[in-house]
Amino acid sequence: MAFLDNSGDIILDAVLTDVGRRRMAQGNFKITKFALGDDEIDYGTYNKDHPSGSAYADLEILQTPVLEAFTQVNATINYGLVSYSRNDLLYLPTIAMNSKMVDKVATTGSLNVIWLADDSKSDSLSQKTSQVLVGAGRTESQYVLQSGVITDRYVLVETGINNAEIAPTAANQSSYLTNVGLADRQFMVGFDSRFIENVLGPSGKPSFTNADSQKTPQLQVGLGSSKRAGRAASRGIQNYAETPVVASLSQLFKPASGDDDTTSFSNIAGVRGSLTALNFSIRPDLTTTDYTKYGRLNQDVWGDGKLFDYIDTIVYVKGISTNITLQLPLRITRVVSTS
Predict the structure, then answer these.
(1) pTM, full prediction
(2) Residue 103 burial by CB count (10 A; 0-12/13-18/19+): exposed, middle or buried?
(3) Is 299 exposed, middle or buried (0-12, 13-18, 19+ CB in 10 A)?
(4) Which of 68, 116, 170, 239 has the fewest CB atoms in 10 Å of its CB?
């Protein structure tokens, strides 16, 4: 169910899902909880220097049309609002995918996807999918994950306060994050179980640290082997499953002396919080029928004659303590032909 505000006064536009209609027909429909979201709002339109004065700074935000109520479970709220019991929080953490440690991490490229390569498939020259993807003129290795591999690239997820005015020091990490319960020790990963079999997370606590004498920070991550343990059906999204992964506190701090160059290695501009690492295993039983139904076949993505099948899906990474959520756009890919 959702509501639509289109007149200045809140008008309840109740649209029931299939489950809601069934329960109403059975006579046992009851609202026990609700969630709020702001998917349609672009906070970048806030203008503190509005020529008409500060009272108009949020005018464009307030006049943003509200989305129509949807009935699909998967299409209601992608960016849910969260509440915190403390009323003394000056800053709230954000969550980001690291794109700076390019020799280790996978991130999104110009097509805004992370390529998850099915290396059980190869071309006529026995080149695996990831090898073809990284071929000259197509894409680069930092955009490609190898399905089920624990020794290559991974997605590095970071949290923290993305404000350069809050220096990334150990003291600020304690004051703004750990001491107020805003440091995640675990993340919940939600994935479409029709396409992804397992999540590969850290086998121990990942480490992201620097010392005064080191120019380049040390990032150490050991992914665990693919396991089904701990996986459960998602309570919020149809066809999705969830599994927890371990996290640890970032030790990437401003050096005691000299310039602070840590933003060259982290996507968090201010004090850093938690981090974790991820890779994924594609379901081995995906068929051409699945790629036809949910994806696209024989795509010449770069116009060079190399053909791929792919399925696009979203993975959700949610902090257990903070409830902040990151969406990872994965493109599950297999090579078809390079001739």
Answers:
(1) 0.81
(2) exposed
(3) middle
(4) 68
Cβ neighbourhood burial of 319 (10 Å; 0-12, 13-18, 19+): buried
311 Cβ partners below 8 Å, 6+ apart?
Answer: 195, 286, 290, 291, 294, 295, 331, 332
**Whole-angstrom Cα distance, residue 338 to residue 306?**
4
Question: How many CB atoms are located within 10 Å of the residue 291 CB?
Answer: 21
- Outline where the chain has alpha helix (H): 18-26, 59-62, 129-133, 170-176, 288-294
Question: What is the pairing mode between strands 186-192 and 307-319?
Answer: antiparallel
Q: How many residues does the chain have?
A: 339
User: Beta strands 240-246 and 272-282: pairing type?
Assistant: unpaired
Six-digit token pair at 251?
Answer: 């030790």
pLDDT band per the 50, 70, 90 thresholds, residue 110: confident
Structure tokens of 262?
Answer: 């840590």
Distance separating alpha carbons of residues 224 and 198, to the nearest angstrom: 11
CA distance readout (Å), 44 to 60, 77, 103, 269, 288 = 10, 20, 32, 18, 42
Structure tokens at 310: 């792919």
pLDDT > 90 in the chain, percent: 53
Closest to 41 (Cα-Cα) out of 22, 25, 56, 60: 60
Spatial distance between the Cα atoms of 253 and 260, rounded to a whole number of angstroms:
9
